[in-house]
Amino acid sequence: MPKLSAATRLFRLILQVADLDAAAAFHGKLLGAKGRRVHSSRHYFDCGSVILALVDPSADGKKPRPNPDFIYFAVQDLDKLHGRAKKLRCLSKDKVHGAPAGEIVKRPWGERSFYASDPDGNRLCFVDAKTLFTGR
Is the pLDDT of residue 109 over 80? Predict the structure, then answer.
């Protein structure tokens, strides 16, 4: 199967939220950045070349739906981010391959990571950038 063209790239990922102000405050504390309001129903965070967009769908009469799977972030200081997640009480209580998901653990595929969820049920995973597994 041919590779995607270099002209094809992911540039924005959307998380639906019920209260945009509360979600922007939560994600700002977790990510350590304020982000920016771009519309009355959208708040953006620059995550490298990809924008994390918080969107409140209630303006269109819809209820927010959490993403069905984890969103993965590569971070330079995993321990610092884990400390912020712990303060926000958003660490996962589940297990991943038998290990506590909310703790920093070296996973079987070699990544050092932890899992969390935002107040809207969007599932997040933070991975030490030095240990990323990309399948190559």
Answer: yes
pLDDT in tens, 65-101: 999 999 999 999 999 999 999 999 999 999 999 999 9
Residue 16 lies in a domain: yes
Q: Is residue 28 part of a domain?
A: yes
Q: What are the b/e assignments for 77-100, b being 16+ CB within 10 Å?
A: ebeebbeebeeeebbbeeebeeee
Residue-wise pLDDT tens digits, 34-57: 999 999 999 999 999 999 999 999
Domain that holds residue 91: 12-58+66-131
Instruction: Look at residue 32 and tell me if it is in a domain.
Output: yes
CATH number at residue 126: 3.10.180.10
% residues pLDDT > 70 (the chain): 96
The span from the CA of 100 to the CA of 111, in Å, is: 14
